[in-house]
Amino acid sequence: MSLPIFAIQSDFLTTLANNHVVVSAATGSGKSTCLPLWARAQGRVLVIEPRRIACTSLAEYLAQQDNTELGDQIGYAIRFEQHFTEHTQVVFATPGVALRWYFENQLSDFDVVMLDEFHERRWDMDLLLALLKVHNQHRLIVTSATLNTKPLIQYLQAATLHSEGKMFLVEERFIANDSRAMPSKYNLSERVREACEQALDNTDGDILVFLPGKAEIQAAAGQLSHLDALVVRLYGGCNPQQQRLALNVQSQQRVILATNVAETSLTIPNVSCVIDSGLERRTHLRGGKTVLNLEAIAKDSAKQRLGRAGRTQSGLCIRLYGEHAPLIDTTPPEIHRENLTELVLAAACSSNGVDSMEFIEPLPQTSKAAAITMLTQINAIDAQQRATALGKQLYPLPIDAQLAYLICAMPSKSLQQAMVDAISVLSVPARVYQLPSSPEQIDALNKRLPNHCDLEFVIALVREQLEDIKVEPDALKEAQQFSDQLRIAFDLPQRKHAASYDRNQLIEAIAKAKPDWLFVKRNNRRGAFGNGKSEVIPAKETRINDNCKAMLVLDTYALAGKGTKQAMTLATLNAPVSLNLVTSLGLGEQQFIDACLVDGRVMAKFSYAYAGLELNEQLVEPAGQLLIDACVALILKGELLAPAGKQITQSLAEHQLYLQAHGSTAESVTTQQYLQTKLQELGLQEQDDIELIEPQDLFYQQLEPWELEPFIEKHPLHVQLNDLLMQVEYSFTAKRIVLNYVSGNRKDAPKKWELPAWPGFKVRYKKASKVVDVK
């Protein structure tokens, strides 16, 4: 069969001999299958595929076409699995595997490196390209399914080739009540069923349905069981049998329910109809953390999906949203929507640091700075952004750097083993288990693990210590593979010889290493927990019960609302902790509340709070600045060194009134500020120092009495009549005085003859909201 890509074979071979090459070609044109084989003319070829399923299927297909055993001339390498030898000429690998090989030997075993489907703009592909550009020891091939390759060509100073490909006419139909209706998850499986029924009436070929994830695929499959068609599920991590059913023509008409793994990399034969939900699960940043959210696809993805229906014949594309839905133009690159910790650490291990490389577009400064700060804090990189010994130990591990750091932070081998097993579950992208739902099963589990602790639960699950728990076999197997690999890396016993551990010690060790993972219950109706920076709500997939006051949160996911403020972060893998742990680790804020005298000694009362929640109050005997704070409070209440507090307050107010009358712009000082400064000047540090201070030592007197007293006599701060006390407020520039009611039984305003003589001033009396002129 002649593929569209054959049209550029001669030009490709000639160009590759002298230049890097950027090839733009539509999905299905044959670039992923032909270019690697042609490139063998330049030496051994490494093909980097964004997805595992593409790595395995492409290698198996090409080995079959080459009539050789898989791993002989053509092989692959993915996490936990590889089929190739040192003599294999073409090796397909995922970006994670390729990055670790680069860390080991700069990919010196290969002459040509091909980065396939680069338009997906994964962060690891961006990093690999930057590393290979700096290293400049390989011939590079970069492929893209889009025509916008100008930035790539300029970046690599590469030649460019384009294959038009074959595209038959595809009719578009939109199923929505409103032409601007956006893709929606509501009643999705029912709408998919209706679209499939319509498609079966309009096409003899296979039907490819794009759905956002495994859960939606399972729900849709349940709705399609009545159809006279073979229903196939295709997603990352699906079992090999389903992959074979999807990637090979079957005798029965198929309905293939797929995630966007089918959008590019994979060629699915005989598709004549695409049903597009318009949805995908896409990463984005929330609070500096990468979270996965349900999003509407971009226009470039919509175009890719439609193209699947017109490869070999005229086709049909049914959209489950409005024709004029305001989709974004392109899917944002991962570097703009993900935490960059892994990228920065990988760059630190494989180069002179992230700032030593030129990326195809600049990294976001905020995300990059946050990643550098975090990795510096855990001592994974140094001040020059190069990997430390710890960083080089963490990077090759097949898990997130923060999680790898947690294993290193455990103080004993038994806790390291427990941490490894818990992290193994956290590192699997698919859901590994479902908690029991029947009361009998819940009771049985609570008797087995009475602490309502998810952390304890997942460790027992990986160690195969639980029965009657519904698990996803492939996901659990992957978690156990993680555990086995990490145990080897950290020189720990095999899982079957796993050591027992102290749950409280494990929780305390994690909290010490990652204190921001501690959350306390807030006093709100949503039952939310906070850590002072973010808020989470226990998910239904957690064993945490309603009595929990604080918890350690190891994993979360985002649940979108109608607006940004309505979005929620749900905590799924949690461990209950006591509030005392928060206090003992010193994570809260200690705030001075008040002071009192106990047996003649000054005592300070403190509130200890975390994330806005007051945990307890403490009464301590203070020293230093805390002693000064406590003495100030007592002096102001008149309980210490009386009558200093009263004298200072009165004298300060009189001095400030005098300065105001004489047009001074000097900044006013409060009684509290004055006392703070005065006690510091007197050298107050210890309780015994208080006995050396007399009230008169604190009195405030800046002006001479002969100067101040006549002024105050004419301008009193308070006026006391027989049945009325008033506070006097002066405005010397406006020549106005307001008498503010303080206390007394008098109902009427005072008379002018009862008051001091204030020549030239207009006098008003104010009680509550009523203001009258004094006559």
UniProtKB/TrEMBL annotation:
SMART domains: DEXDc (SM00487), HA2 (SM00847), HELICc (SM00490). Pfam families: DEAD, Helicase_C. Residues 12-165 form the Helicase ATP-binding domain. It comes from the Bacteria. The keyword ATP-binding applies. GO terms for molecular function: ATP binding; helicase activity; hydrolase activity; nucleic acid binding. Keywords: ATP-binding, Helicase, Hydrolase, Nucleotide-binding. Residues 195-351 form the Helicase C-terminal domain. This is ATP-dependent helicase. It comes from Pseudoalteromonas amylolytica.
